[in-house]
Amino acid sequence: MKPSALTVCAVLALLVSAALGRADVIAGGGSGGGYQPFAMPNQGGAAYWDQHSLDGNGFNVGYFLSSTGAFTPQASAHAMPALNLQWFGNSGSGPGTASPSITFAATGPVTTQLLLTVAANAGINQLGWYNVNSPNDLHPLYTGATADPNDPKTQTFDPNGEFGLYLKGAQGTYFSQTSLNPAGDTINGGPHQHFAVFQDADSGRVFVGVEDLFGNIPVEFTGDFNDIVISLYAPRPPTPLQAPETPEPPSVLLFAAAGLGLAGWVWRRRSRIAKG
Fold first, then answer.
1. Contact at 8 Å (CB) between 142 and 155?
2. In this structure, is residue 7 part of a structural domain?
3. Are the C-beta atoms of 242 and 233 separated by less than 8 Å?
4. Is residue 150 part of a domain?
5. Structural domain tally of the chain?
6. Domain that holds residue 255
7. Is 46:53 a contact under the CB 8 Å cutoff?
8. Which of 28, 85, 184, 223 has the fewest CB within 10 Å, making it most exposed?
9. Quick count: other Cβ atoms within 10 Å of Cβ 254?
10. Cα separation, 227 vs 68, whole angstroms
11. What is the pLDDT of residues 89-133, one digit of tens each?
12. Pairwise CA distance, residues 71 & 276, whole Å
């Protein structure tokens, strides 16, 4: 947990799944970017989210999502199940791997789950969403919330169009479109991305890690993105072709069998009359 700023950008399609079906969450922007292979975190900074943490060794969001470092099942109650991860951004190395403007769109209501909060400012941080056409109209999802694996916190909202994420913290309000961030919230003169987006390639579920500190952060540089971690998915009912077959109740099967028996009797009777 450290102070942070946020930036993200690009155009991506995030496929997300749920128990009732599968739907698309689409993230977009204008600066390119795409999903990159996930390498196990080492705090080396090759990916903008893979930094050292003020919380200790092995605490950045990559360790959390891969259940390594400080988040092994033996060390943390917040350990995650095995995921086939990829992360969204630019190829290369360093702060430039962050995509500066990420927005989302879904085919229906979006459900979020609060997975982790490792922040000194957890009691005042507010995470929410906004419509890209009215970024001043903020819709809170979690305010002063603390993640508890024994008491999952979820929120569902219907953005009705393209939306972004924001974090309102002690040092300002940061948006997933970094052009909306406070003046001076930069990394080496460039945008400071406060959101890191990941996807489980198997299930399609999307994960977002958030950094709550402003500008160039001591020790963490761009941030550790573990201040708040959420998942996003957009469930929808299966299409008719995907709908499971409904077993026929015994009474219906019995009626069908009786009908077939009657039809056979009528056919045999007509056959005898015709021969006679």
1. yes
2. no
3. no
4. yes
5. 2
6. 246-276
7. no
8. 184
9. 11
10. 17
11. 998 999 999 999 988 878 789 999 999 999 999 999 999 999 999
12. 87
